[in-house]
Design goal:
3 strands; alpha+beta; about 50% helix; 3-stranded antiparallel sheet; 4 helices
Length: about 120
């Protein structure tokens, strides 16, 4: 087991370094794409694309006040976008009840495919 633990530790350290380098590269690519006002480019044999999505970030106290039924609050326990979306889909709550309980944050996904 000593060798497995040692290897696991080594790989986790590599993973941290790789994630740091990926974050730096992503930041550089996003900066260049933004500077060039581009959402999609062909770079050599790669297709680089920026995809923007929105993510709602609920504010716990506002969400609690917007939900009239304490049982619904217990089902959520913490603001979780997936759970909230599920409750809206099944009709347990109406989206307009929540309109002042969240902020919308833009997320940009960097997608690089080999041509």
């Amino acid at each position: 087991m000593k060798s497995e633990v040692s290897r696991y530790y080594q790989l986790k350290q590599k993973q941290k370094l790789i994630e740091q380098e990926l974050a730096q590269l992503k930041e550089q690519i996003l900066a260049k794409m933004t500077e060039e006002d581009s959402r999609e480019q062909i770079v050599g044999s790669y297709k680089v694309k920026l995809v923007t999505s929105e993510r709602k970030e609920y504010q716990e106290n506002l969400l609690y006040n917007a939900l009239p039924d304490p049982e619904l609050w217990r089902m959520l326990s913490k603001p979780d976008q997936g759970k909230i979306t599920g409750l809206i889909k099944v009709g347990a709550i109406q989206e307009d009840q929540l309109k002042e309980t969240y902020t919308v944050r833009q997320q940009i996904a960097l997608i690089i495919d080999k041509k």
